[in-house]
Automatic annotation (TrEMBL):
rRNA-binding recorded as keyword: no
Record-stated family: Belongs to the glutaminase family.
Class of enzymatic activity (EC top level): hydrolase
Gene Ontology terms: biological process: glutamate biosynthetic process; L-glutamine catabolic process
Lineage: Bacteria, Bacillati, Bacillota, Bacilli, Bacillales
Source organism, top-level taxon: Bacteria
Catalysed reaction equations from the record: L-glutamine + H2O = L-glutamate + NH4(+)
Subunit structure: Homotetramer.
PANTHER family for this protein: GLUTAMINASE
Positions bound to substrate: 66, 118, 163, 170, 194, 246, 264
Protein name from the UniProt record: Glutaminase
Keywords from the UniProt entry: Acetylation, Hydrolase
Amino acid sequence: MNKKVTEQQLQEWIEHVKPFTRLGKVPDYIPALAKQDPEHIAVSVFHLDGECVRAGYVDHLFTLQSISKVIALALALMDQGEDYVFSKVGMEPTGDPFHSIAKLETSNPSKPLNPMINAGALAVTNMIEGESPTDKVGKLLSFVHELAGDNTIGIDTEVASSEFETAHLNRALCYYMKQNGIIEGSVEELLDVYTKQCSIAVNIQQLARIGAVFANEGRDLQSGRQIIPKHLARICKTFMVTCGMYDASGSFAIRVGIPAKSGVSGAIMGCVKDVGGIAVVGPSLDEKGNSVVGMQLLEMLSSRLELSIF
Ligand SMILES: NC(=O)CC[C@H](N)C(=O)O
């Protein structure tokens, strides 16, 4: 079947879901994110043949937030290898909110259950090699440039500083992990890298193209170059299925059924083998931290194009 939609269809779907923004709310635990407009909705499908279909606020920039966890994981796996990464971080879903500290105390050995929750993501970011925080952020950014095929992508410094100043819970997670030998070095420097990683700012097309590289088994869409080794891209996508939508990953697998990762900016990046990357954004979030309209748009796309992998 033809797995393509038109821009007009996407625009109609945006109009259809817009009223549902009222069912959620824009997050305020990172003060700069509270300023987002819930109606800044956009959607894009980046096909493996290079065609990109998009609609809504297509030029609007938003931050990656937790979507960056997949990217940092790919980089850490490439830098350190699977054995090292999984000696520090587990592979199991938690069923808890993304910033929960509870399982760190009750799991034995005391390591974060997976790289998609904040504790696991902080441990993964701690593994990225570099002489200084600036070096590590530079490395992450260059990797994003490669994935998106666009080296104009930068960091939203207002969002980064806002999170850095208020990331008390993430600091607590780091100190707990430092006590237990999961991370080492300066917590402040790690928070500096992590908050900048989360604040990498993209538009909807750039995000869909990153998703398309994962869909394309780690290969660049134009040159065919293997940016991420295939088996590591597969590990990332598997985590997206089991843990990508926080503690709503199970219901999302049933409703939508594609590897996807969401962030508190209201963005979600999905990838579908043989089809491409999908990105949606809508800053109004449900109680689990997932975009209300983003999930609806993905559900519509998945059912119309029969995208579920199950
Ligand atoms: N779920 C998210 O997107 C969380 C990312 C955010 N930067 C945090 O650590 O709280």
